[in-house]
Amino acid sequence: MNKNSTTKANKEDLKFLSEVLSKAFFDDPVAQYFFPSDINRNVALAKFFGIQMAKLYYRFGHVYTNQDKNGVAIWSPPGAKTDDLKSILALLPLAAILKGRTIRALKAITYLDKKHPKTPPHYYLATLGVLPELQGKGYGSDLLEPVLEECDRNIVPAYLESSKDKNVPFYERHGFKVIEEVNLLDGPKLWLMWRDPQVN
């Protein structure tokens, strides 16, 4: 890791980190699909990521940031339940943010959930984002490192969906491989990627 070392986020960090992610994902095709308005997207995304972290993923203990809090990696560990009743109820506030696009979002989430491999148990990278002006400088790699090291140490695979084609080579450098390309209904393409543990 570099001098700006990766650490688990504290609960009091989540609001600030949601704003970091809103900037990181402003031009993301899926973010534009859910929130078409350039005027409102930053605010909507900050609320979206705030709910995602606080209500769904933080409880699993794998929300990572760094010393300067300029990036975030959000994981769920093997066996984590994100589709149970508790999780669904926790995400109800998203409807107020998505407004008329709630059905579109639910269809997309349901479709991707069906594509998500159920076995073997694995880590799932729900979100990785770094401030735009710092992208390409190694921060994303550092944010991935703790969980990928754990994957290799414990011989556990990992999975993600990349919403940008330019990010595919980045993930490939970290051992992920594209297993399928899918298109959301009237929406963007995503690259489904799987990583087997790197065992020497």
Give a short overview.
With 200 residues, the chain is of the alpha+beta class. The chain has one domain (6-195): Aminopeptidase, CATH 3.40.630.
Total count of helical runs of at least 4 residues = 8
Distance between the first and last residues' Cα:
20 Å
| CATH third-level topology | Aminopeptidase
Q: What structural class results from the helix and strand content?
A: alpha+beta
- Identify the CATH architecture: 3-Layer(aba) Sandwich
Shape type: globular
Give the name of the CATH superfamily. Answer: Gcn5-related N-acetyltransferase (GNAT)
Number of domains: 1
Number of DSSP-assigned strands: 7
CATH class: Alpha Beta
Nearest-integer average pLDDT: 90
Low-confidence stretches: none
As laid out across the biggest beta sheet, the strand order is 1-2-3-4-5-7-6
Q: Describe the main β-sheet briefly.
A: 7 strands, mixed
Backbone CA Rg: 16 Å
Series of secondary-structure elements, N-terminal to C-terminal:
EHHHEEHHHEHEHEE
Helix fraction bin: 40-55%
How large a portion of the residues is in β-strands, by DSSP E? 15-25%
Walkthrough of the structure:
The chain has 200 residues and is α+β, with helices and mostly antiparallel strands. It has a single domain (6-195), classed as Gcn5-related N-acetyltransferase (GNAT) (Aminopeptidase), CATH 3.40.630. Helix content is 40%, strand content 20%. The protein is built from eight helices and seven strands. It has helices at residues 14-24, 29-34, 41-57, 85-90, 94-98, 102-115, 139-154, 168-173, and strands spanning 6-8, 63-66, 71-76, 123-130, 158-162, 177-183, 189-195. The chain has a seven-stranded mixed sheet with strand order 1-2-3-4-5-7-6. A hairpin with a 5-residue loop joins strand 6 (177-183) and strand 7. The relative contact order is 0.16. The model has no long low-confidence stretch (mean pLDDT 90).
